[in-house]
Protein backbone atom coordinates (compact mmCIF):
# COMPACT_ATOMS: atom_id res chain seq x y z
CA UNK A 1 0.00 0.00 0.00
CA UNK A 2 1.02 3.32 -0.86
CA UNK A 3 0.66 6.47 1.11
CA UNK A 4 -0.64 9.41 -0.64
CA UNK A 5 1.17 12.63 0.29
CA UNK A 6 -0.29 15.89 -0.90
CA UNK A 7 2.57 18.27 -1.78
CA UNK A 8 0.39 20.78 -3.53
CA UNK A 9 -0.18 23.13 -0.57
CA UNK A 10 3.56 23.45 -0.14
CA UNK A 11 3.96 24.23 -3.83
CA UNK A 12 1.06 26.62 -3.71
CA UNK A 13 2.57 28.39 -0.71
CA UNK A 14 5.90 28.70 -2.51
CA UNK A 15 4.18 29.97 -5.65
CA UNK A 16 2.23 32.53 -3.61
CA UNK A 17 5.42 33.66 -1.88
CA UNK A 18 7.17 34.15 -5.24
CA UNK A 19 4.17 36.06 -6.59
CA UNK A 20 4.29 38.29 -3.50
CA UNK A 21 8.01 38.86 -3.99
CA UNK A 22 7.54 39.73 -7.66
CA UNK A 23 4.54 41.84 -6.83
CA UNK A 24 6.54 43.71 -4.19
CA UNK A 25 9.44 44.11 -6.62
CA UNK A 26 7.13 45.46 -9.35
CA UNK A 27 5.22 47.71 -6.94
CA UNK A 28 8.53 48.93 -5.45
CA UNK A 29 9.90 49.62 -8.93
CA UNK A 30 6.72 51.48 -9.83
CA UNK A 31 6.88 53.52 -6.60
CA UNK A 32 10.54 54.35 -7.25
CA UNK A 33 9.77 55.27 -10.87
CA UNK A 34 6.84 57.36 -9.71
CA UNK A 35 9.01 59.09 -7.08
CA UNK A 36 11.72 59.79 -9.69
CA UNK A 37 9.09 61.18 -12.08
CA UNK A 38 7.59 63.36 -9.35
CA UNK A 39 11.07 64.59 -8.43
CA UNK A 40 11.86 65.24 -12.12
CA UNK A 41 8.55 67.09 -12.62
CA UNK A 42 9.15 69.21 -9.51
CA UNK A 43 12.64 70.14 -10.82
CA UNK A 44 11.12 71.06 -14.20
CA UNK A 45 8.36 73.10 -12.56
CA UNK A 46 10.91 74.87 -10.35
CA UNK A 47 13.15 75.59 -13.36
CA UNK A 48 10.16 76.79 -15.38
CA UNK A 49 9.08 79.11 -12.54
CA UNK A 50 12.64 80.42 -12.25
CA UNK A 51 12.81 81.06 -16.02
CA UNK A 52 9.40 82.77 -16.03
CA UNK A 53 10.50 84.97 -13.15
CA UNK A 54 13.76 85.80 -14.97
CA UNK A 55 11.85 86.60 -18.18
CA UNK A 56 9.37 88.84 -16.36
CA UNK A 57 12.22 90.59 -14.51
CA UNK A 58 14.06 91.07 -17.81
CA UNK A 59 10.86 92.45 -19.38
CA UNK A 60 10.38 94.84 -16.47
CA UNK A 61 14.03 95.91 -16.68
CA UNK A 62 13.67 96.46 -20.43
CA UNK A 63 10.52 98.54 -19.88
CA UNK A 64 12.32 100.63 -17.27
CA UNK A 65 15.29 101.05 -19.62
CA UNK A 66 12.92 102.07 -22.45
CA UNK A 67 11.19 104.53 -20.13
CA UNK A 68 14.54 105.97 -19.01
CA UNK A 69 15.65 106.21 -22.64
CA UNK A 70 12.42 108.07 -23.54
CA UNK A 71 12.97 110.48 -20.64
CA UNK A 72 16.57 111.05 -21.73
CA UNK A 73 15.41 111.56 -25.33
CA UNK A 74 12.77 114.07 -24.20
CA UNK A 75 15.31 115.87 -22.01
CA UNK A 76 17.79 116.02 -24.89
CA UNK A 77 15.03 117.27 -27.19
CA UNK A 78 14.15 120.02 -24.70
CA UNK A 79 17.83 120.96 -24.33
CA UNK A 80 18.17 121.07 -28.10
CA UNK A 81 15.10 123.30 -28.40
CA UNK A 82 16.45 125.60 -25.68
CA UNK A 83 19.82 125.72 -27.41
CA UNK A 84 18.20 126.47 -30.77
CA UNK A 85 16.09 129.24 -29.21
CA UNK A 86 19.17 130.67 -27.51
CA UNK A 87 21.12 130.54 -30.79
CA UNK A 88 18.22 132.20 -32.57
CA UNK A 89 18.06 134.95 -29.95
CA UNK A 90 21.84 135.32 -30.12
CA UNK A 91 21.65 135.59 -33.92
CA UNK A 92 18.86 138.17 -33.67
CA UNK A 93 20.87 140.12 -31.12
CA UNK A 94 23.95 140.06 -33.35
CA UNK A 95 21.89 141.18 -36.34
CA UNK A 96 20.34 143.97 -34.30
CA UNK A 97 23.79 144.98 -33.10
CA UNK A 98 25.09 144.93 -36.68
CA UNK A 99 22.22 147.13 -37.88
CA UNK A 100 22.72 149.46 -34.93
CA UNK A 101 26.41 149.75 -35.86
CA UNK A 102 25.38 150.34 -39.49
CA UNK A 103 22.97 153.12 -38.52
CA UNK A 104 25.65 154.76 -36.34
CA UNK A 105 28.19 154.57 -39.18
CA UNK A 106 25.59 155.75 -41.68
CA UNK A 107 25.09 158.99 -39.79
CA UNK A 108 28.81 159.75 -40.06
CA UNK A 109 28.90 158.94 -43.78
CA UNK A 110 26.02 161.14 -44.88
CA UNK A 111 27.16 164.18 -46.82
CA UNK A 112 26.10 167.45 -45.16
CA UNK A 113 23.48 168.32 -47.75
CA UNK A 114 21.73 164.86 -47.61
CA UNK A 115 18.81 164.07 -45.30
CA UNK A 116 17.21 160.63 -45.12
CA UNK A 117 13.42 160.69 -44.89
CA UNK A 118 12.72 156.94 -44.99
CA UNK A 119 14.61 153.68 -44.51
CA UNK A 120 12.77 150.49 -45.47
CA UNK A 121 14.26 146.99 -45.05
CA UNK A 122 13.03 143.87 -46.83
CA UNK A 123 14.51 140.40 -46.67
CA UNK A 124 16.89 141.09 -49.55
CA UNK A 125 17.32 144.85 -49.72
CA UNK A 126 17.41 148.17 -47.94
CA UNK A 127 15.62 151.13 -49.55
CA UNK A 128 16.70 154.68 -48.73
CA UNK A 129 14.60 157.76 -49.48
CA UNK A 130 15.81 161.25 -48.81
CA UNK A 131 16.44 164.86 -49.82
CA UNK A 132 19.62 166.51 -51.04
CA UNK A 133 20.78 169.83 -52.38
CA UNK A 134 23.11 168.32 -55.00
CA UNK A 135 23.31 165.29 -57.29
CA UNK A 136 27.02 164.92 -56.44
CA UNK A 137 26.15 164.33 -52.78
CA UNK A 138 23.65 161.61 -53.81
CA UNK A 139 26.40 159.95 -55.91
CA UNK A 140 28.83 160.26 -52.97
CA UNK A 141 26.27 158.59 -50.67
CA UNK A 142 25.76 155.79 -53.21
CA UNK A 143 29.52 155.20 -53.41
CA UNK A 144 29.95 155.30 -49.62
CA UNK A 145 27.12 152.78 -49.09
CA UNK A 146 28.82 150.44 -51.57
CA UNK A 147 32.09 150.73 -49.62
CA UNK A 148 30.48 149.60 -46.35
CA UNK A 149 30.70 145.92 -47.38
CA UNK A 150 27.14 145.17 -46.28
CA UNK A 151 25.64 145.41 -49.74
CA UNK A 152 26.18 143.48 -52.93
CA UNK A 153 25.30 146.53 -54.98
CA UNK A 154 23.61 149.89 -54.54
CA UNK A 155 21.23 151.07 -57.27
CA UNK A 156 20.16 154.65 -57.72
CA UNK A 157 16.47 155.32 -58.20
CA UNK A 158 14.47 158.26 -59.41
CA UNK A 159 15.64 161.79 -58.60
CA UNK A 160 13.05 164.57 -58.63
CA UNK A 161 13.57 168.27 -58.11
CA UNK A 162 11.12 170.17 -55.92
CA UNK A 163 10.18 173.81 -56.36
CA UNK A 164 12.27 174.67 -53.30
CA UNK A 165 15.36 173.41 -55.14
CA UNK A 166 15.79 170.25 -53.05
CA UNK A 167 16.18 166.93 -54.81
CA UNK A 168 14.25 163.89 -53.58
CA UNK A 169 15.91 160.55 -54.30
CA UNK A 170 15.61 156.81 -53.66
CA UNK A 171 18.42 154.26 -53.44
CA UNK A 172 18.08 150.47 -53.24
CA UNK A 173 20.91 148.51 -51.65
CA UNK A 174 20.90 144.73 -52.20
CA UNK A 175 22.00 142.94 -49.03
CA UNK A 176 25.05 140.70 -49.17
CA UNK A 177 24.17 136.98 -49.23
CA UNK A 178 20.44 137.50 -49.85
CA UNK A 179 18.52 136.75 -53.03
CA UNK A 180 16.84 139.59 -54.83
CA UNK A 181 13.09 140.15 -54.49
CA UNK A 182 11.21 139.25 -57.62
TrEMBL record:
The record's section on InterPro entries has: Extracell_DNA_Util/SecSys_Comp (IPR052534), PilN (IPR007813)
Ranges that cross the membrane: 24-45
Xref: Pfam families: PilN
Alphabetized, the UniProt keywords read: Membrane, Transmembrane, Transmembrane helix
Query: What's the protein name?
Result: Pilus assembly protein HofN
Source organism? Paramixta manurensis
Q: What is the lineage of its organism?
A: Bacteria, Pseudomonadati, Pseudomonadota, Gammaproteobacteria, Enterobacterales
Amino acid sequence: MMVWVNLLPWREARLLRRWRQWRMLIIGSLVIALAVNILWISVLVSTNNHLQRAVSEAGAARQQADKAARYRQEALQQQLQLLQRWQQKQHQYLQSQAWLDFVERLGGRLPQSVWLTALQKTAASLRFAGLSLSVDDIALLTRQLGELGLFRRVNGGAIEQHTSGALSFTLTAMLEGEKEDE
